Amino acid sequence: MDYEQIDISGDVGIRAWGRDCAEAWANAGIGMFSLVTDLSKIGNNRLVEIAIKADSSEGLLVRYLNELIFHLDTYNFIGNRIDIVAFSEDSLRAFVYGAEFDPSLHEQRLLLKAATYHNIRIAKMAEQCVVEVIFDI
Amino acid sequence: MQRNVFWEIIMSLEKIRRIDDNRLEVPNDYKPGMRTNGIIFADAVLEKGLEPSCIEQVANVAILPGIVGSSLAMPDIHTGYGFPIGGVAAFDLDEGIISPGGVGYDINCGVRLLRSNLKRSEVSPKIGELIDALYNAIPAGVGSKGRIRLGPADEKKVLIKGARWAIEEGYGTAADLDKTESGGCIEGADPSLISDKAYERGRAQQGTLGSGNHFIEVQYIDEIYDDAVANAIGLFKDHVTVMIHTGSRGFGHQVCTDFLEVMAGALKKYNIALPDKELACAPFKSKEAQAYLAAMRAAANYAWANRQCLMHWTREAFISFFRISPGQLGMGLVYDVAHNIAKVEEHVIDGRKRKLVVHRKGATRAFPPGHPELPEIYRNLGQPVIIPGDMGRASFILVGTEKGKLETFSSACHGAGRILSRHEAIRRAKGRAIRRELEDKGIFVRSAGREILAEEMPEAYKDVTNVVDVVHNAGIALKVARLRPMGVVKG
Predict the structure, then answer these.
(1) Burial tier of B350 (Cβ tally within 10 Å: 0-12, 13-18, 19+)
(2) DSSP A127
(3) Is B231 helix (H, G, I), strand (E, B) or coil?
(4) What CATH number corresponds to the domain at position A50?
(5) Across the interface, do B421 and A9 touch by the CB < 8 Å criterion?
(6) The domain containing residue A117 runs over which residues?
(7) How many whole angstroms separate alpha carbon B420 and alpha carbon B433?
C-alpha cells in the first residue's frame, strides 16, 4: 500500500509516499478517497481534471486535496486513480479517474470536511517523497 | 504510555497553577508573547486528562492582538486547529482580530432541543420502530442526498434569512424563531462574498444531518435540578424530548476553507506573527476580516435553516408515527444554540460597555437573566444552554448566569469532549457489539455508516456529567435538567 491512515484525536490523517513527489501526492489523494469508501467497489467511468496554483508546496497540497473534497461533496465523485501530469513547487495539473458514490451500493465510511494545515508534512528525499495531511471529519 | 509523552504532560502541568476547585490558570509567562493569561475550567479529575497540546493552544490564543480578558477554555477542552475546542476568546474591534480557526470548519455547528407531551412509558415500547421512522425521514450519512434542491436565488435567500427562509417555505412556525439564538438569522450576511464552490456544495445539502458526531436523539427527562426554570421552559420529568445536532454542512466547510486561504495571504500584509499557522487571522476592521464575518454569518444562517427543516420533519415523523395531532404532541422548540461561531456582542469590561468579537469554538453562549436578546418568556430566567453528551450516558440543560457574564463573556461548555482517537475507539470496540451494548441499556441506534458506532461510542468521550458539574460549580451556568438517551439516528 502506498498510503496509510494516521490517528489523531477526533480527526484522521493520511501518510502517503512515492518514488517522487508527484507519485506521493497522487497516493495521498487516493488515500484520502479510501477514507470515504471501499475503493475496490468504485468503477472508472468519470474523469475530473484539477489545475491549480498556490504560494507554497503546503498550500498546493492542501488546495489539491480540497479540490478533490469539493468534487466529492458536490458531485459524490470518488477517485481511484490519479495521474499528476504537471507538477512544480507552486502548480499542479492532475487527471482523476473514478465514479459516482452511491450510498445505497457503496460503504459509507467518513465524511470529510476539509484538508487542513495541521501537522502537515512534505519530505522530499533522494529516492522517495513522503507527505502527511490531517483531515477535519 | 510512552515515557516522553508522560514527561511532556508532567512538564506542562508543572507550569500551570490551580486557582480553585474549578479553575486552572495558564500564567502569562507560560510562553513568550502572551498578552494575557489563560483560564481553563477544570476540576482535579479533568486536569489529569489535559493534553499538553491543548494547554499550548490556550497560551497561543493569548498571543493574538487585541485580546480582551483571558484566553478561556471550557471543561470539555481538547486539541483543535489553532484554537482549542472548548475555547472562548474576545477581541477588541479596533485593536483585535477575527480568526476562522476560532470558529471552526463547521460554522454554526449547534444543537436544538424539542420538548413534547409524550411520556417515556408511551414511547419506550416502540422506540426501535420510532427510530426507524426517523431514520427514513431524515437525510443522513456520507453522500446522502437531501430532500431540498436550492436554485441560486433560493440559496441566497437561505443565506440572508436563515431559519426565517425555512419558515416561509413551510418548515415550522414563526414562534420557533423566538426560541432560536439570534432569531435563527444574523444580520450582515453577504451572499456576494461566497465562492461558487460553496454555493455548489450547499445546493443539495440543506435539510441534511451529515455524519460524524452529528445526530438526532430521542430522550427522556430523568432528573430536574431547577423546578422553576424547567417548568417555565416546558420540561417535566419522564417527558420525551428530541435533540438535533448538526451545522452548516459542506457549505460552511467550504466557506472556512476559502477564508483560511484569504487569511493566510493577509498575514504578511498586516505583519501578524503567529505561533501557529492555524491561528491565521486579520485585523477585525480589515477588508479580509469583514468579508469573513459576512461570509461566516451567511453560513451560520444556512445552519439555522438546516436545523429548522430537520425539526419540521422530526415533528412530522412523530405525528405520523403516533397518529396524534400537533396539539397533542406539543413538540415545541425549547431553544437552539450555536457552538461554533463568532459574535459581535456588548460586554461590560472594567465598568465600561464595549463591543467585542467573541469567538466560541466548541463553546455555547449562555446569556444571563435579564438579557434583552432573550425571548420575553425566558428573560427572567436566563438563556437555556443545551449540552449534548455521548449517546450512552446523558445530556443536560443548563441556564445562563450573571457570573458567567462576568467571567466567560456569557459562555459555557458545548458537550463532552473527545478523549479517545478514532483508532483507539475502534481498537477498544473490537470484539464488542456496541449497538448491542446500547440496546441492552434500552438505547436503539440507527446509523448510516458502519464503524461510526465504534468511533462514537460513549467511552470515546469525557464524562459529560463531570464537565457539566464543573460549569455548574464554577457558577457560569447552572443545571436545570438531565436527559437520558432512548434512541439515536446517526449519519
Answers:
(1) exposed
(2) S
(3) helix
(4) 3.55.10.10
(5) yes
(6) 3-136
(7) 18
Q: Which residues contact B146 (CB under 8 A, 6 or more apart)?
A: B139, B204, B205, B206, B207, B208
Render pLDDT for B12-28 as a digit per residue (tens, 0 to 9). 888 999 999 999 999 99
Residues whose CB is less than 8 angstroms from the CB of residue B334 and which lie 6 or more positions away in sequence, other chains included: B112, B113, B114, B115, B179, B233, B234, B235, B241, B384, B386, B397
Residue of chain A with shortest Cα separation from B417: A10
pLDDT, residue B11, reads 83
CB pair distance less than 8 Å for A59 and B144? no
In degrees rounded to 5, what are phi and psi of residue B158? Answer: -60, -40
User: How long, in residues, is chain B?
Assistant: 491
Catalytic residues of B: 414
Q: Which amino acid is at B362?
A: G
Q: Does B466 touch chain A (CB under 8 A)?
A: no
Mean pLDDT, rounded, for A52-70 = 96
Q: What are the residue boundaries of the structural domains of chain B, listed by start?
A: 3-490
HSE of B490, CA atoms in CB hemisphere, 13 A = 24
Distance CA B475, CA B481 (A): 16
- Do B370 and B442 contact (CB within 8 A), yes or no? no
Are B421 and A136 an interchain contact pair (Cβ–Cβ within 8 Å)?
no
The domain covering B3-490 belongs, at the CATH homologous superfamily level, to: tRNA-splicing ligase RtcB (3.90.1860.10)
Mean per-residue pLDDT, B247-266: 95
A108 touches chain B (CB under 8 A): yes
Q: What is the predicted pLDDT for the residue at B265?
A: 87
Yes or no: say if B138 and B367 are a contact pair by the CB < 8 Å rule.
Answer: no
Which chain A residues are Cβ-neighbours of B255 within 8 angstroms? none
User: What pLDDT sits at residue B9?
Assistant: 79
Name the phi and psi angles at B33, rounded to 5. 95, -5
Q: How many CB atoms lie within 10 A of CB B221?
A: 22
The torsion angles phi and psi of B193, rounded to 5 degrees, stand at -90, 0
What's the number of domains chain A is made of? 1
**Per-residue pLDDT at B477:** 98
> Which residues share a beta bridge with B41?
B23
C-alpha cell at B36: 494575557
Look at residues B70, B21, B72 and name the one whose alpha carbon lies nearest to residue B47: B21
With contact defined as beta carbons under 8 Å apart, do B143 and A101 qualify?
yes
Asked if pLDDT for residue B346 goes beyond 90, the answer is yes
**What is the distance between the alpha carbons of residues A94 and A71, in angstroms, rounded to a whole number?**
14
Each residue of A17-48: pLDDT tens digit? Answer: 999 999 999 999 999 999 999 999 999 999 99
Q: Which residues pair with B445 in a beta bridge?
A: B488
A93 touches chain B (CB under 8 A): no
- Answer yes or no: are the C-beta atoms of B175 and B164 closer than 8 Å: no
Q: Are B180 and B333 in contact (CB under 8 A)?
A: yes
Residue B235 vs residues A36, B134, B241: alpha-carbon distances, Å: 40, 22, 9
Across B306-320, b (16+ Cβ under 10 Å) vs e yields bbbbbbbbbbebbee
